[in-house]
Design goal:
Layout (H helix, E strand, L loop, with lengths): L18 E2 H8 L3 H9 L18 E2 L3 H15 L3 H20 L7
Antiparallel strand pairs: 1-2
Helix pairs in contact: 1-2, 1-3, 3-4
Length: 108
């Protein structure tokens, strides 16, 4: 009589790391209302739960904290509105991506 293979925790896919809204706000050094505004303006998106749980808290990729902090610095230091700060962060990210694709010069 054969048994179905038992799935051990180590055999499963590793859980995706994510943080709650309040933790992300703390990591970025902002209030939760600012994180919500950045979500509204498309700077970051909440992670979708694998299973639909009615009371599941909103979760985010922890690397989003750096983007939120950068946008908030732009808002504060350059007096940009949310849409301007989001646009600048997206453009800076795109520049970084393009620079990473460039071949490295040996004549630095």
């Amino acid at each position: 009589m054969s048994k179905d293979p038992v799935t051990r925790p180590s055999d499963r896919d590793p859980p995706e790391e994510s943080v709650q809204l309040t933790v992300l706000a703390r990591m970025a050094g902002v209030q939760t209302v600012h994180v919500r505004r950045y979500v509204e303006f498309g700077l970051l998106e909440p992670k979708r739960p694998r299973r639909t749980a009615p009371a599941a808290p909103v979760r985010f990729d922890p690397t989003s904290a750096a983007r939120v902090a950068r946008a908030e610095r732009l808002r504060r230091d350059l007096n940009l509105n949310y849409s301007g700060a989001v646009l600048v962060v997206e453009l800076l990210d795109r520049i970084s991506e393009l620079e990473a694709r460039l071949p490295r010069s040996h004549a630095d």
